[in-house]
Design brief:
InterPro entries: Cyt_c_oxase-like_su1_dom, Cyt_c_oxase-like_su1_sf, Cyt_C_Oxase_1, Cyt_c_Oxase_su1_BS. The protein has 622 residues and is mainly alpha-helical. Helices cover 63% and strands 1% of the residues.
Length: 622
């Protein structure tokens, strides 16, 4: 505690002199202010969401309307659209590859964790900034470099990477295999090496900040669930991303230096390659050791944001605070020992498969705990249906609907039948893609006033939610039926075989629903951009929330609090407390000021408050 107080005192001293003059470049471009870096991640994530979404629209046009003339896309895709207006099959695979990589990593990982960990960790724990502002700045610029490298691969003559977003060898390991296995694949691997460096720099910073820079009174059992989710996410990323980096480095060596980590007994045009001794299954083990924790690197921040938003807009304490923390820790532990459920079709030993099946079904338990706690928090609450609250409730809906299909795929006997079908596509787009996306949207709507000092239009936000919510279900629920019927994923068209032509109309319906859902995102984009400049001016605490970020100025400067950082006296979920004058009590309000609402054990904490203040005054005098 003494070391922590020393750190905070130094931080406060720095904060009081932090408002020095800065040039445009040091303030907005190469900034070390965590709030500016959060906005940089947010704007980059929005750009990538539009790019990845556009790729998915071309995919859905091809799948839903395979006879359509796509010549109007030639100004964008160039030679990949034939003279007859048909999309080249190789480019279709390239779009699938880039869509998956962009949405998984550059939107949902950077857009969620990069944006909201940077924005909220210092503000909610009472810190002037991140532990290392310079490292934080490097984290964004490594991400920006990764973005530039990946985006440039679209403009290669040979096209972007075309091996699927998992880039399994041997296809990805042999430059001569397909046009997208050439320079496009090399840039893909380089981009992800830079992305992993960015993620590791950020994770180290987040962990260090939460552990060392909490303000006085901010014990771990008083942290908001958002901070717990960011902390656990950072730990998962720190332990899992280096494994992905090692897999990509070994793959790059197979491609460029003649090694055989993942290659063996490969024949091209009847001629054997010299590579022997490698195993493509080894790559899958390395990839999915990151791949499944990656699901929770995306998902846990969305759960944390949803926890605060649901409690705030239900005007109720979050139900089962400690159970929520325990469930996230259980998810963190179990996420590292279930990776091989992605590999049931690789010829895995059935006994080993049963072990991973058992562990996979166990991980449903902590997820169910969180879902139950959300519903119990909502039950009989005085619910305020802000756009953020609607997106949070939608996220909980996907948690259940996508989780049910996850239990089905966790059964190895069923997964072997369904693994390469649209059932899997529907499952992970619901539980990971849509749920996490809704969590991110909820976070943007809720903390927009803290980022920009203005309010987003509530009516446009509600319209955005309802179209998106309906569109997601109309897109992915029918895909489950396609999967059960045996429709294979990654196919270029469903008109090649008789058994796949039976559901052409359903495929067209899915494509129309997906396109309408994508168009609805421009309602958000219009609302977002217009509100930055012309939105209604926000109040200091527009949602009557308890957490510490709402005690700062409307748009806090570098250093967050102009004076001393507030003390923390209570947990962040004192909503609608019996006997209280208002239906919320911020964390920085002492128990001595709320005698009518204190529980017996809280009255006993008043002496602790007095001692805390006395110790601080003595320290300041010395």
């Amino acid at each position: 505690m003494q070391n922590q107080e020393n750190i905070i005192t130094t931080s406060e001293a720095l904060g009081e002199s932090a408002h020095h003059s800065q040039s445009f470049w040091s303030r907005y471009i190469f900034s070390t202010d965590h709030k500016v870096i959060a906005k940089q991640f947010l704007f980059s994530g929005i750009f990538w969401a539009l790019t990845g979404g556009a790729a998915s629209m071309i995919i859905r046009l091809q799948l839903g309307f395979p006879t359509m003339n796509l010549g109007w896309l030639r100004p964008v895709l160039g030679k990949w659209i034939s003279d007859g207006g048909k999309l080249d099959p190789s480019m279709y695979l390239g779009l699938v590859t880039m869509h998956g990589a962009i949405m998984m990593f550059f939107v949902l990982t950077a857009g969620l964790s990069g944006t909201f960990s940077n924005l909220l960790i210092p503000l909610q724990i009472g810190a002037r900034d991140m532990a290392s502002g310079f490292m934080n700045m490097l984290s964004y610029w490594f991400f920006f470099a990764a973005s530039v490298v990946l985006f440039s691969s679209f403009f290669l003559q040979t096209g972007p990477a075309m091996g699927g977003w998992t880039v399994y060898p041997p296809l990805s390991a042999m430059p001569q295999a397909i046009s997208g296995s050439g320079m496009g694949m090399s840039l893909y691997l380089l981009s992800f090496a830079l992305f992993v460096i960015s993620t590791l720099l950020g994770s180290i910073n987040y962990i260090t900040t939460v552990i060392n820079l909490r303000t006085r009174g901010m014990s771990f059992n008083r942290l908001p669930l958002t901070i717990w989710s960011f902390l656990i996410t950072a730990v998962i990323g720190l332990m899992s991303f280096p494994v992905l980096l090692s897999a990509f480095l070994l793959l790059f060596m197979d491609r460029s230096f003649g090694t055989s980590f993942f290659l063996s007994d490969i024949y091209i045009n009847g001629q054997a390659l010299p590579n022997v001794g490698g195993s493509p299954i080894l790559y899958q083990h390395l990839f999915w050791f990151l791949g499944h924790p990656e699901v929770y690197i995306i998902f846990l921040p969305a759960l944390g944001l949803t926890s605060d938003i649901i409690a705030t807009n239900s005007r109720k304490p979050i139900f089962g605070y400690r159970a929520m923390i325990a469930s996230m820790m259980a998810i963190m532990f179990l996420s590292f020992i279930v990776w091989a459920h992605h590999m049931f079709v690789t010829g895995m030993n059935p006994f080993l498969g049963s072990v991973f099946m058992f562990l996979t079904l166990i991980i449903a338990v902590p997820s169910a705990v969180k879902g139950f706690n959300y519903i119990t928090t909502l039950w009989r609450g005085n619910i305020i249906f802000t756009p953020a609250m609607l997106f949070s409730i939608g996220m909980v809906s996907f948690l259940f609907s996508g989780g049910v299909t996850g239990a089905i795929l966790g059964n190895s006997a069923l997964d072997i039948q369904l693994h390469d079908t649209y059932f899997v596509v529907a499952h992970f787009h619901l539980i990971m893609g849509s749920a996490s996306f809704f969590g991110m949207m909820a976070g943007i709507y809720h903390w927009f006033p803290k980022m920009f000092g203005r309010m987003m239009n509530r009516t446009l936000g509600q319209i955005h939610f309802w179209i998106t919510f309906a569109g997601v279900y109309m897109t992915f629920i029918p895909m489950h039926y396609l999967g059960i019927a045996g429709f294979p994923r990654r196919y270029y068209a469903f008109t090649s075989y008789d058994f796949t032509t039976k559901f052409v109309d359903m495929n067209a319906f899915i494509s129309v629903a997906a396109i309408l859902t994508f168009i609805a995102q421009f309602i958000f984009l219009y609302n977002f951009i217009k509100s930055i400049f012309y939105g209604k001016r926000a109040s200091l605490n527009p949602w009557n929330s308890n957490t510490l970020e709402w005690t700062t100025p409307l748009v806090p400067g570098h250093g967050n609090w102009p004076g001393k950082i507030p003390f923390i006296y209570r947990w962040p979920y004192d909503y609608s407390k019996p006997g209280a004058e208002k239906d919320f009590i911020p964390q920085n309000i002492p128990y001595s000021q709320t005698p009518s609402s204190n529980f017996p054990h809280e009255n006993e904490l008043i002496k602790t408050e007095e001692q805390l203040i006395t110790n601080f005054v003595i320290k300041e005098e010395h």
